[in-house]
C-alpha cells in the first residue's frame, strides 16, 4: 500500500499527533514499512498449523508447600515501645 503526505497528515490527525512538515516523509516511509509487514504476515501460509499457547514447551518445577518461618508477631511486638491487641501504637500525627 502506498501512502502520500495527505494520508499521513490524516492518520496523524486521527491519532492526535502533531507532525511537522519536515517529518512527513520519514513518517510516511515508516508507516509504509509497517503496512508491508502486515501484508507479508497476511500472506503467510498458516493452514494446518496448531495454535501455540507458548512457543516453548515448559513446565514449572513444583516445590513442597511447607512453612518456612514461624509466627514471630509476639517477639516483634515486644520490641515496640507501645502495643495493644496485636497492633503497634504510634503517636497521633494528624490533628
From TrEMBL:
<dbReference type="Pfam" id="PF02686">
    <property type="entry name" value="GatC"/>
</dbReference>
<comment type="function">
    <text>Allows the formation of correctly charged Asn-tRNA(Asn) or Gln-tRNA(Gln) through the transamidation of misacylated Asp-tRNA(Asn) or Glu-tRNA(Gln) in organisms which lack either or both of asparaginyl-tRNA or glutaminyl-tRNA synthetases. The reaction takes place in the presence of glutamine and ATP through an activated phospho-Asp-tRNA(Asn) or phospho-Glu-tRNA(Gln).</text>
</comment>
<dbReference type="GO" id="GO:0006450">
    <property type="term" value="P:regulation of translational fidelity"/>
</dbReference>
<dbReference type="GO" id="GO:0050566">
    <property type="term" value="F:asparaginyl-tRNA synthase (glutamine-hydrolyzing) activity"/>
</dbReference>
<dbReference type="GO" id="GO:0005524">
    <property type="term" value="F:ATP binding"/>
</dbReference>
<keyword id="KW-0547">Nucleotide-binding</keyword>
<keyword id="KW-0648">Protein biosynthesis</keyword>
<dbReference type="InterPro" id="IPR003837">
    <property type="entry name" value="GatC"/>
</dbReference>
<keyword id="KW-0808">Transferase</keyword>
<dbReference type="GO" id="GO:0006412">
    <property type="term" value="P:translation"/>
</dbReference>
<comment type="subunit">
    <text>Heterotrimer of A, B and C subunits.</text>
</comment>
<dbReference type="GO" id="GO:0070681">
    <property type="term" value="P:glutaminyl-tRNAGln biosynthesis via transamidation"/>
</dbReference>
<keyword id="KW-0436">Ligase</keyword>
<dbReference type="InterPro" id="IPR036113">
    <property type="entry name" value="Asp/Glu-ADT_sf_sub_c"/>
</dbReference>
<keyword id="KW-0067">ATP-binding</keyword>
<dbReference type="GO" id="GO:0050567">
    <property type="term" value="F:glutaminyl-tRNA synthase (glutamine-hydrolyzing) activity"/>
</dbReference>
<protein>
    <recommendedName>
        <fullName>Aspartyl/glutamyl-tRNA(Asn/Gln) amidotransferase subunit C</fullName>
        <ecNumber>6.3.5.-</ecNumber>
    </recommendedName>
</protein>
<comment type="similarity">
    <text>Belongs to the GatC family.</text>
</comment>
<dbReference type="GO" id="GO:0016740">
    <property type="term" value="F:transferase activity"/>
</dbReference>
Amino acid at each position: 500500500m502506498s501512502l502520500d503526505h495527505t494520508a499521513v497528515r490524516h492518520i496523524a490527525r486521527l491519532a492526535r499527533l502533531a507532525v511537522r512538515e519536515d517529518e512527513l516523509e520519514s513518517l510516511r516511509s515508516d508507516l509504509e514499512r509497517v503496512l508491508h509487514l502486515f501484508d507479508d504476515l497476511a500472506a503467510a501460509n498458516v493452514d494446518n498449523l496448531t495454535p501455540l499457547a507458548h512457543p516453548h514447551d515448559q513446565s514449572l518445577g513444583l516445590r513442597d508447600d511447607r512453612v518456612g518461618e514461624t509466627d514471630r508477631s509476639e517477639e516483634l511486638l515486644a520490641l515496640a515501645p507501645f502495643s495493644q491487641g496485636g497492633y503497634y501504637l504510634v503517636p497521633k500525627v494528624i490533628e
